[in-house]
Every structure is written in structure tokens, then in C-alpha cells.
Amino acid sequence: MKTKLTVKSIEALQPADKDQIIWDAELPGFGCKVTPKGRKSYFLYYRTKDGQQRRPAIGTHGPLRPEAAREIAKRWLAEVAAGGDPSQTRKIDRSAPTVNKLCDRYLEEHAETRKKASSVKNDRRIIDVHIRPAIGAKKIASVARSDISALHHSLRSTPYEANRMLALASKMFSLAERWSLRPDNTNPAKNIDRFREEKRERYLSPAELKRLWIALNSPEAKEKASDSAIAAIKLLILTGRRVSEVLGLRWEWIDFKAKTMRLPDTKGGTLFVSLADSTIAVLEELHQSRQARLERQKNAKPDEDSELNPFVIEGKRQGQPLVNLQKPWRAMREMAKIDDVRLHDLRHTYASVGAGLGMSLPLLGRLLGHSQPATTSRYAHLAQSPVSVAANQIGDELIRLATNDQHP
User: Fold this and answer.
1) Which of 53, 148, 274, 407 has the least CB density, counted as fewest CB within 10 Å?
2) What is the pLDDT of residue 158?
């Protein structure tokens, strides 16, 4: 049966004992099917260039009017004329992976095999909090720059978080191209301007450093924090290490004789750190306390093998490190009256002191374990020139000679 498919002609159709097919009189292959239950739907019949028969559904009458269905059918026929297969294209589109799948694959195949555990944890947080809720259900190939830009803009109140999300999205979609999930050079996270980030530069002044050191060595400190926590803060001050590096430090990595420690898993890879005498003193005090506990355990249970915690900064759980310094740090910070100082600022302080002593930026970068020179360059404005340092040293020596070597 052929007739021009209009709202009037379709709504006049009555259901029968079996499916009815009504062909459009204007567009070949365009038709409407009526089921015995009265459901009416549009479809297009065509043959592919290799002779395969297809009859994909266009949509249901009611939500879709015949004029709109006819326009869709025309576009599909144009695709067929160009050698395409709209039915197969739709099938591929329906089975195409979503951004949620890309997130899973990124974490499993890239992050978990190439990144540190702390970095994987942060990637997972950004994905779960920002990326999945916004675009997780979208097909990987359908994500546009406007989608990523809108997500980035929605996080404008937290510029650092917004920029980390953008960097992570860019990496994920670069991998999507490598994995043939998107065409090359179509990364939707590219060419989006990042928000300006205000770098926080906070260093302890000599007076603040003195108050903190006094607080750490006071009887009151031992009432508010464990020996391990106090020692950890001292090591952060004296070594300029990252918090995770100090808390994860193992005794087997310490060489007291050579005054070095080996850090096998820093951002820049394995790092050998030279230790000052003051740092060795803190470590020796911890080590002596550890050995004393071992002797007490042996005396109490001579028939049992005693095991000590392998971590320098011990936690409450047997054999585990301290995992969080925030509570003891807040207590020490309050005692020292430096409420706006973060633990990471102790690393900045270490670097600022080194720069102030005239140490070169490459040397500072090596001490801090920076993999990129640009990371160390933030301390350039603090560095004294070698000429200034030399002048001070000569002046100090002249004063020493003038005041100490006088004869009566």
C-alpha cells in the first residue's frame, strides 16, 4: 500500500491481525509499520552498495512527525548514495565506548602502571568527582571541546583543581587517539586556556623557625604528639623532603656511616640525599630508641623472635608508618604561633635558606630532587650573587682577624 505519509493518513490507520506496511508515495523506501497493538513507527528500506538489505527504524509516530521522519530518511539515502550504510553506522555508534570506559582504561592501563600510588589516588578523585558526573555517559568520539571547556569553566572558583582536571582530561583523550578511540588530532581538551594560579610563597622567618624548633623540643610537645611525629617535622625542616618521602622512609635506606639516605620512589626517580649532622642526630635518637625497644622485647620474651617496625616514622599500627601529620602539626604550629604555615612550607623554607646562602639553582634542584629546572627557578629571587657571598665571607674573615688576632 502506498500513500503520502501525513499525520492525518497515519492516524487514520487501524491495527490488524498482523503488521501492516504503508509506503510513502513521495520517497522510495520510506514507510510506516503498524503493529497489531496499534504501535506506529517509521523506517527506511535500502540496499547497500554490495547488495545487503537494510531496514533501520527511524522513530515512533507521535514523538516523531512524518515530515521530520522523512527528512531523516532523506539524509540516510544520501549517505547510501555516497556508499555509506546508516544502519551499520548507528550500530557502531551504539556500541562505541563511553568516557566512563576511557576513565577505567586510563586508570588500569596507564596510571596504575606508570604513576605513584598517591598520584593514582588523586587522578581517581578528579575522575570520580568531576569527569564522570559531567561527561562520563558520553561517547568518547562525541565529546567536543565545548564539553571540556564548560567543565573547566564550572571549576573556575578553584583554579588549581580546574587546571589539574584539564591536564588529566587532555592526557586521557591523547591516549584515546593512541588507542584508536578517536581520530588523530581531535583532542577536545587542547587549546583551552588554563586559569591563572597564584603560587603560594611562604617561608619561615628566622624568628618563626626559632619558635618552632623550641616548641618541638619542649616538654609540652611530647604531651601533644608522639616522638615519631615530632621527629618527622624535624626531618622535614632539616632535609627539605616532601611529607610522603619522610613518612615512607625505611631504616634500610639510611646509611649512617656515609650520612646519606636513598629514596627509591621520588617524583624524579631514585634519589640519594646527603644528610647534615643535625639530621643524623635526629635519626640516631630515633634509632637508639628503636634498639632499646628491641632489647626490652627480647628480655620480656627471650624465646620469641622480635620484630621492629621497618619505618623510620612509626605509626600506631604494628609494622606501619605514621600516615598523617596534620594533627601533631596543628599542635606544633599553634605552640609556635605560625598558624598560616603548611607542612610543605617547610620545604620552601629549606630552599629559601639554601638560596640565601648563595647556593646555585642547579645545586638546590639536586638537593630538593626537582626533575625540572623550572621548578627550582621560583627561588631565584632569593639567591645572593656569588660576588655578594664572597664579599661577606672576606669581610667576616677580616673582622675575625682584626678582633681575635690582636696581641697585647
Assistant:
1) 407
2) 92
228 contacts 313 by C-beta, under 8 angstroms: yes
Q: At what angle do helices 117-126 and 159-178 cross, to 10 degrees?
A: 100
Owner of C-alpha cell 572558583: 157
The pLDDT of residue 22 is above 70:
yes
Main-chain phi, psi angles of 59, to 5 degrees: 165, 175
> Do residues 377 and 352 touch, judged by C-beta distance below 8 A?
no
Is residue 182 helix, strand or coil?
coil
* DSSP 3-state of 24: strand
Query: Which of 234, 220, 270, 207 shows the shortest CA–CA distance to 350?
Result: 234
In 3D space, the residue among 235, 236, 241 whose CA is nearest the CA of residue 280 turns out to be: 235
Bridge partners of 61, per DSSP, are 64
Q: Are 141 and 182 in contact (CB under 8 A)?
A: yes
Residue-wise pLDDT tens digits, 99-137: 999 999 999 999 999 888 888 999 999 999 999 999 999
Q: Residue 3: helix, strand or coil by DSSP? A: strand
pLDDT digits (tens, 9 = 90+) for 302-356: 655 557 789 999 998 888 999 999 999 999 999 999 998 999 999 888 888 887 7
Domains belonging to the chain, first-starting first, are 2-95 (3.30.160.390), 99-178 (1.10.150), 206-386 (1.10.443.10)
- pLDDT at position 378 is 64
Question: Is pLDDT of 381 > 70?
Answer: no
Residues 6+ apart with CB under 8 A from 218: 335
Please name the residues in contact with 104: beta carbons below 8 A apart, sequence gap of 6 or more: none
Over the stretch 39-62, which tens digit does the pLDDT of each residue have? 999 999 999 988 999 999 999 999
pTM of the model: 0.56
Residue 24 grid cell: 510513502
Find where cell 517509521 sits.
Answer: 42
In angstroms, the Cα distances linking 381 to 254, 349, 355, 386 are 34, 14, 9, 14
Alpha-carbon gap, residue 120 to 125, rounded angstroms = 9
Report whether 352 contacts 382 (CB < 8 A).
Answer: yes
| pLDDT value at residue 52 | 92
**275 touches 284 (CB < 8 A):** no
Instruction: Tally the residues of the chain.
Output: 408
- Is 349:244 a contact under the CB 8 Å cutoff? no
- What is the pLDDT, as a whole number, of residue 408? 42
